[in-house]
Amino acid sequence: xxxxxxxxxxxxxxxxxxxxxxxxxxxxxxxxxxxxxxxxxxxxxxxxxxxxxxxxxxxxxxxxxxxxxxxxxxxxxxxxxxxxxxxxxxxxxxxxxxxxxxxxxxxxxxxxxxxxxxxxxxxxxxxxxxxxxxxxxxxxxxxxxxxxxxxxx
Length: 153
Description:
three-stranded antiparallel beta sheet; 153 residues; alpha+beta
C-alpha cells in the first residue's frame, strides 16, 4: 500500500508533467479567470436598447409634460365660479393659461362646455401625433375634464 505522502507527491508530479505537456490547458484556465465584463456585441446590444428607450423618452416625454400643464390649467378652473361664467370667458381663461405655460398646439375650439342645471362640465380631449422613426408615428390621446359640481363639495 502506498503511503499518503507518496500518493500526494505522485499526484503533484503528474500535474507538473501535464502542465509541461499541454501548456495551453493552463493558459485557457488563466484567461477565463481574467476575462470579466461584457463583450463587444453585448455592449452594442445594451447601447442600442438604452438608445431606443432614451429616444422614446425624449420624443414622448414632452407630450406628457404639456398635458400636465393642460390638466393644471383645467384644474385651475376650481378657483373660478365656472357655473356663472360664459363659454367665451372659460375659453379665454384656459387660453391664457395655455399661453403662460407655452402650450401653442391646443386650440380653444377643442374645449367642450356642457351646462346642466346644477353643474358645468368642461372637457378637453385631444390627441398628439409625432413622427417617431422613419414612417412610424406615435399617437397619444389625452382626456382632461373639470366638473363644477365636484368642486363645490
